[in-house]
Amino acid sequence: MRGKLTLLVPVFNEEEVIEKFYQEVRSYPELCQLDLEILFVNDGSSDQSALVIQKLIEQDPKVKLMNLSRNFGKESALLAGLSVIDVTQAGAVVPIDADLQDPLQVVIEMLAKYQGKVKMVLAKRVDRGNDTLLKRLSAKWFYKIFNQLSECPIEENVGDFRLIDHSIVKVIQGLPERNLFMKGLFSWPGFKTEIVSYTRPARAAGQTKFNFFKLWNLAIEGLTSFSTMPLKVWTYAGLLIALCSFGLALWMVIEKIFWGNPVPGYPSLIVAILFLGGVQLLGIGILGEYIGRIYFEAKQRPRFVVESLITHSDLNSVE
Ligand code: UDP
Ligand code: MG
């Protein structure tokens, strides 16, 4: 390939797997003969991750470490890493997890497809057997709903693991948003894309950093960032309910004229009140989701804070 290949590795408390990850990269001669760079982004780890990476940097000038000032989340860590990629030169970036769930063999397959002049190669999971049933089902529904609502569809079962050409990195560096859903942002620029399939293995060691609520929030982030349909749907829901109530009113007049009014209706009244109350609260809640996000965008706070960027030469000059 032309130019540099950067492996962009977000790290949050991964001390047990970093060394293994590094050795795995080094065990692939196809990768080592490239102009390779391993950029670890330490997303505010509280364990020894930074130290482990610094040891690697001492031995290997191709390893770099960006320390963020606290835990900003994987999406921000990826963006932080992308922000220091030199897009004036040819090359590509592969965001890859530190826990060896993204196999390096797949990177080699992606590189082979990349030669064919595409701008992005996606790594698609064909088997989610290592995920829990809940995660598999919720992921399936998420992709279904997202692709129905969003004007920019994303490929099902493709995570952040992919090969991104520098021209797409350049576009992403220029995107101003604070609410980050990287999978969506990666596919937003478009361009020619290829896919390679792989089976996702289990974590090499340690625990997943994503619980149900983090994933739920990510899903809401994705939907609200890429679609305004949840906002607009209330116009139609309101219209439908108004039409129904008009029909009901008409029916009550007819009923009164022909059969008189026996004054029943307590249950239907309470059901209507509760139903409408629920619908209104839901609508207000969805408004809140969007307004909250507009509020964050309006504040224009930085999306991450870089504490330090450590390279081989920095460590040597300290000694
Ligand atoms: N990660 C991160 N910041 C976070 C959470 C996760 O940088 O706040 C990193 C983590 O260290 C790992 C990658 O993101 O390299 C994927 O995380 P994990 O393996 O926990 O996610 P899963 O594979 O379970 O979806
Ligand atoms: Mg993982």
Question: What would your notes on this structure say?
Answer:
By secondary structure, this protein is α/β, with parallel strands linked by helices. The protein has two domains: 4-215 and 304-318, Spore Coat Polysaccharide Biosynthesis Protein SpsA, Chain A (Alpha-Beta Complex); 229-299, no CATH class. Helices cover 51% and strands 17% of the residues. It has an eight-stranded mixed beta sheet with strand order 7-5-6-4-1-2-3-8, sandwiched between helices. Strand 2, helix 3 and strand 3 form a beta-alpha-beta unit. Helix 6 packs parallel to helix 9. It is elongated and about 95 Å long. The model has no long low-confidence stretch (mean pLDDT 89). Bound molecules: uridine-5'-diphosphate and magnesium ion. Magnesium ion is lined by residues 97, 99, 101, 203, 208.
How many DSSP-defined strands? 8
Biggest sheet architecture: 8 strands, mixed
- End-to-end separation in angstroms reads 35 Å
What fraction of the residues are assigned to beta strands by DSSP? 15-25%
Number of helices: 12
Given helix and strand content, the structural type is alpha/beta
Bound molecules: uridine-5'-diphosphate, magnesium ion
Output the CATH topology of the largest domain.
Spore Coat Polysaccharide Biosynthesis Protein SpsA, Chain A
Low-confidence stretches: none
- Give helix % range: 40-55%
Elements, N to C (H/E)? EHHEHEHEHEHEHHEHHHEH
List the domain count as a whole number. Answer: 2
CATH class of the largest domain: Alpha Beta
Lateral arrangement of strands in the main beta sheet: 7-5-6-4-1-2-3-8
Mean pLDDT: 89
